[in-house]
């Protein structure tokens, strides 16, 4: 089986937006990727998320989102730490269950464990100037990945500000869960790292698929049976021996082949309406990152329309999900029921008290 190529974090959209003219990172990156310079300069010139000039900007409410990101930026340096010199003997099965239970106590809705593959890790770092171009060499054997549900009534207001508040709360929740787990594991004498917003060294959706939380959908996001793509993911990697969970296949690929609602309603036309194609050695639906991100900067939120316009986000009866692989006709039945209830897409237009 052909080994997947590791993704370079320097090519991530968020990394590219951090490269400022006149800096070494800017000169190095666009010397290597000159074809991206024009569009990246254009995107960087737009208002940032939550800034004045974007469609949803509100001088009182937009800082809610920025406050969360500032907090996450302040704590991300705590993602790694000293390991207790005294290593406790553990039972792999019991410890795997204990870590799952601890994750649930601290707010995780879904959790799984997997053996990490080399291709799950970035090849090089790119988000911060001080780490730009550093090779990712430290790769733990095990990954604990957890998901938190994003508030449905907030996401159904996409692309307005409540959607962004729900999303950033998700990043904050998984960041804190990961901190507790990684600190606990290090107390037991094993190395552990919390991968969180602005400080991931591994690609969360790939780890989540391997750990059985869901499958990758047409929109490029992890889609879970329970909440659809309406989740945010955190990872803790460790050298502590654990028992991996298996992958799941509940028929999402077949479902997305027929559905396509996220592509139909994407304001940036960023999601492929066609069939899968080979992208970086992986057969998947192609996402236009630049046009997706352009809508983020224009709207002042991370849009979220593809989150709320997935039938799995709004809930599908368990027995019908179980039928997808056995009876493909149930897919159209689910889509028809969804359209009958929500029309073009689910949306709540009334304001929440937090917006007043």
Automatic annotation (TrEMBL):
Which GO molecular function entries does the Swiss-Prot or TrEMBL record give? Answer: iron-sulfur cluster binding; metal ion binding
Keywords of the record:
Iron, Iron-sulfur, Metal-binding
In its UniProt entry, what is this protein called? 4Fe-4S ferredoxin
Is Iron-sulfur included in the keywords of this UniProt record? yes
Residues in coiled coil: none
- Start and end of every 4Fe-4S ferredoxin-type domain? 246-276
InterPro entries for the chain: 4Fe4S_Fe-S-bd, 4Fe4S_Fe_S_CS
């Amino acid at each position: 089986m052909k080994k997947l190529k590791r993704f370079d974090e320097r090519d991530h959209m968020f990394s590219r937006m951090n490269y400022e003219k006149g800096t070494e990172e800017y000169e190095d990156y666009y010397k290597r990727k000159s074809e991206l310079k024009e569009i990246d300069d254009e995107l960087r010139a737009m208002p940032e998320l939550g800034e004045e000039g974007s469609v949803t900007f509100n001088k009182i409410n937009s800082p809610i989102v920025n406050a969360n990101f500032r907090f996450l930026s302040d704590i991300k340096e705590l993602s790694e730490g000293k390991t207790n010199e005294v290593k406790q003997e553990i039972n792999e099965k019991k410890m795997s269950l204990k870590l799952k239970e601890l994750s649930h106590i601290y707010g995780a809705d879904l959790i799984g464990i997997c053996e990490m593959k080399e291709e799950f890790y970035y090849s090089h770092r790119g988000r911060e100037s001080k780490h730009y171009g550093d090779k990712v060499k430290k790769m733990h054997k095990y990954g604990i990945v957890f998901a938190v549900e994003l508030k449905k009534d907030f996401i159904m207001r996409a692309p307005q500000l409540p959607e962004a508040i729900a999303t950033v709360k998700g990043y904050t929740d998984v960041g804190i869960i990961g901190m507790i787990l990684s600190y606990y594991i290090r107390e037991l004498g094993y190395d552990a790292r919390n991968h969180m917003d602005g400080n991931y060294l591994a690609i969360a959706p790939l780890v989540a698929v391997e750990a059985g939380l869901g499958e990758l959908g047409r929109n490029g996001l992890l889609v879970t049976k329970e909440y659809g793509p309406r989740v945010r993911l955190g990872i803790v990697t460790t050298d502590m021996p654990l028992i991996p969970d298996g992958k799941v296949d509940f028929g999402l690929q077949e479902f997305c082949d027929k559905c396509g609602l996220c592509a139909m309603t994407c304001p940036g036309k960023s999601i492929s309406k066609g069939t899968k194609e080979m992208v970086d050695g992986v057969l998947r639906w192609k996402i236009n990152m630049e046009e997706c991100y352009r809508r983020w900067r224009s709207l002042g939120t991370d849009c979220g329309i593809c989150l709320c316009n997935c039938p799995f986000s709004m809930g599908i009866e368990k027995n019908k999900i179980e039928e997808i692989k056995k009876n493909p006709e149930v897919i159209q039945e689910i889509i028809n029921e969804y359209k009958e209830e929500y029309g073009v897409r689910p949306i709540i237009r009334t304001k929440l008290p937090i917006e007043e």
